[in-house]
Write a structure and sequence with these properties.
The chain folds into two domains: about 5-190, 3-Layer(aba) Sandwich (Aminopeptidase); about 200-240, no CATH class. It is built from nine helices and eight strands. It has helices at about 30-45, 60-70, 100-120, 140, 160-165, 170-185, 185-195, 200-215, 225-240; strands spanning about 5-10, 20-25, 25, 50-55, 75-85, 95, 125-130, 145-155. The strands form two sheets. Strands 4-1-5-8-6-7 form a six-stranded mixed beta sheet, with helices on both faces. Strands 2-3 form a two-stranded antiparallel ribbon. It starts with a strand and ends in a 5-residue tail after the last helix.
Length: about 240
């Protein structure tokens, strides 16, 4: 499946409305917005992917309706949340997907791994929606495309909350989601991203190689001297810091 669109959703309502989980000094809705806004900023540089940002004050049915009005089968939906539990020992990042959707399962798995790697929060892994506290998750089962709901950690767990509110990890969650989605989309998208970012560097490569080849004698193009072409190309790439 080729995905051309990404929708970032920040769970609950901010600044007014349903706050989600409440922890001393902050709310889930606020933390969702902080992670979601930074995630959107990162994806704005990806010119090969249309990125949409669901309004932060919708919530519930209105949120699902907005997503369906803008999504298609080629859309990835990432809904950002933070968890809570009556058990203060409950800890970890987890992500939910629609049962039977292999793409959703893989996306959820990758994002969980990335968040755990970058933050140190325990990885609870990818799960189907029926394994959640709510049994049914509308943003997953009632929307078009492939949707995952990411729980970035438990705000009711001291360890998780300290990491969620740690200033040194301000962008770690959004960077992890960005890395997870781009890894899921595969090498093709990553190569396009690098092409957009390094277009000037690629122009330098082409221009420099062309000039060096032109300066060689015509005999360069004989079969016996094809290795010389490779040496020129590798030499130029090495000069501008590109690994071969």
């Amino acid at each position: 499946m080729k995905y051309n669109k990404l929708i970032i959703v920040e769970g609950h309502q901010y600044p007014n409305g349903d706050p989600g989980a409440i922890a001393k000094g902050t709310t889930e809705a606020r933390q969702n917005v902080e992670v979601g806004d930074e995630t959107v900023k990162l994806f704005r540089n990806v010119k090969t992917l249309e990125v949409l940002h669901c309004p932060q004050d919708l919530g519930g049915v209105a949120e699902i309706a907005w997503v369906n009005a803008h999504a298609d089968s080629d859309t990835i939906v990432v809904s950002i949340h933070h968890n809570a539990s009556k058990d203060a020992n409950a800890s970890g990042v987890e992500a939910y997907h629609y049962k039977g959707n292999a793409d959703g399962q893989e996306l959820a798995r990758i994002i969980c791994g990335k968040i755990s790697e970058k933050t140190g929060i325990y990885n609870r892994g990818a799960k189907i929606e029926s394994q959640s506290q709510h049994n049914h998750i509308g943003i997953i089962s009632r929307t078009k495309g492939t949707a995952v709901l990411v729980e970035c950690g438990f705000m009711t767990n001291p360890y998780d909350k300290n990491h969620i509110l740690n200033p040194d990890l301000d962008n770690a969650f959004s960077e992890a989601i960005f890395d997870g989605v781009t890894e899921f989309l595969g090498k093709e998208l990553k190569n396009k991203i690098m092409e957009n970012i390094n277009r000037e560097k690629l122009d330098v490569i082409i221009t420099t190689i062309t000039k060096k080849v032109e300066n060689k004698s015509k005999s360069l193009y004989t079969i016996g001297e094809q290795d010389d072409i490779k040496k020129i190309v590798y030499g130029v790439l090495s000069e501008i810091g590109v690994d071969c």
